[in-house]
Amino acid sequence: MMSVSTQDTAIRTGRVTRALIYLVLLLFGLFYLLPLYVMVVNSVKPLDEITGGGMMNLPRVFTLEPWAKAWSSAQIGVDPTGLQPYFWNSIKMVVPAVAISTVLGALNGYVLTKWRFRGDTILFGLMLFACFIPFQIVLIPMARMLGLMGLAGTTWGLVLVHVVYGIGFTTLYFRNYYAVFPTELIRAAQIDGAGFFQIFWRILLPSSGPIAVVSIIWQFTNIWNDFLFGASFAGADSQPMTVALNNLVQSSTGVKEYNVHFAGAILAALPTLLVYIVAGRYFVRGLMAGSVKG
Amino acid sequence: MAHTADADFKTRLQNLLPKLVLSPSLAMVLVFVYGFIIFSVYLSFTDSRLLPSFGWVGWENYSKLWRLSHWEISLRNMGVFAALYISICTVLGLGLAIFLDQKIRAEGMIRTIYLYPMALSFIVTGTAWKWFLDPGIGLENVLQTWGWESFRFDWIKNRDYAIYTVVLAAVWQTSGFVMAMFLAGLRGIDNEILKAAQMDGASNWNLYRRIIIPQLRPAFLSAFVILSHLAIKTFDLVIALTGGGPGRATELPATFMYSYTFSRNQMGIGAASATIMLMTIAAIMIPYLYAELREKK
Fold it and tell me: What range(s) does the ABC transmembrane type-1 domain occupy (chain B) (predicted)?
């Protein structure tokens, strides 16, 4: 549970109004929880309970069979491998991509705030706009480029793609965060003879925790959840989880095993959901620390 | 004071270092973003089909594109989708933020529940809603087994209504995030002004209408920019939820581009559609980013 103190508002409301407000908030709470409830409840019941009209019911027979099947034996594409190998493909892609884009973002943010030069705002603007382009515009040349670089269909190819289209955001976060960091401290260190990397390492990095968390959570969520790049550039042994889940759900052969689909969907959602529940509060706090305009 | 050559080199390196550190990122962005944009725009004027080819055909791909009913349907769907998605998310986000700003008990827990869909992949969202809305096993079937036998809800299978199920799932995913943006804006408003207005006998309704909501302008602007760019980029959700169907009822420009480029071997037309998508987003983003970056100087 996130616990940020409720701020004092000047607005006063009567009893009836308050009851209505609570009612509306509760109803929307149910609306947001509904799909999660549907996924969880149906992932632990036998298929016939779903097809028999019991989608909203709690399971009569509790079974973890659909989870086991989704993880290790469901038919994905041509092979009955389950989602397991694709889960590891995603991990192998996400970890380096998040690490590299965060380090580059930190260095870029440092340069763009503490070593300013003519035209740096324009360069930053160019990097920032790159975050918002519809990626359809780069799909065709990117496919060619990955082929030329010998990275077509590989995990490293996907890492490259995610780093390239992620550094705009990581740079933005670190730039905003470092912008409010006192420049006098940097100048003082310079007078004492500290170099570019020493200043970064000793002065800025130790206080970069909150914004690093923001950058890591943001990148992790975006890259884990990406589908377009995975579907366009991944090969048989680098397909990420989202593409595999879509293949599982859309497969037109055999009986539709809804319970397995729901279990698979939860497996695909679990890593980002866990990160959100465990670290969500640090995300908001870090963003707030960076959003103070300098 | 004489500088030794060595010290001179060191100072120059120190002066160059910041730019050296920035240059790999910059080079990547220039090649992979701007170089690629130029390449794709160029392809949209060529006779590329299965593979890029460089025979210049002028505006032919564009004129073909605008004559395709498939493209026209994608655009019309985008119009319906974007208008509803942006307006519903904004109204819902603002409403929930105002309600949540009334010293609500368990506010933290409610916020967590409203926001968690944002952490999910659109493929997961699409899968969950696809089966929940499926008339065979989902809501329609459930209410019928509960005894409401005449209940019908087959929007996801209905050409005229399927686009609204995409709106529903997309609103479910992002409205909590918009709520958080407005909540942050509400928390930044000075209470003293409100108290003064209350002294003068202003009602809650008037406080919101005259004082609070006008002060939320920056939040409205950010919400609009973020939602409109998300709307234009919507791809995975449609793939997972409806696959563009039934028929072409939920095709959007992003799915159009993908199928023309990669499965119909009409790369020139695909590139032309991507160029139009880029121009639309640029028309929204560039003025916004320009204003944001200027402000900070």
Answer: 75-290
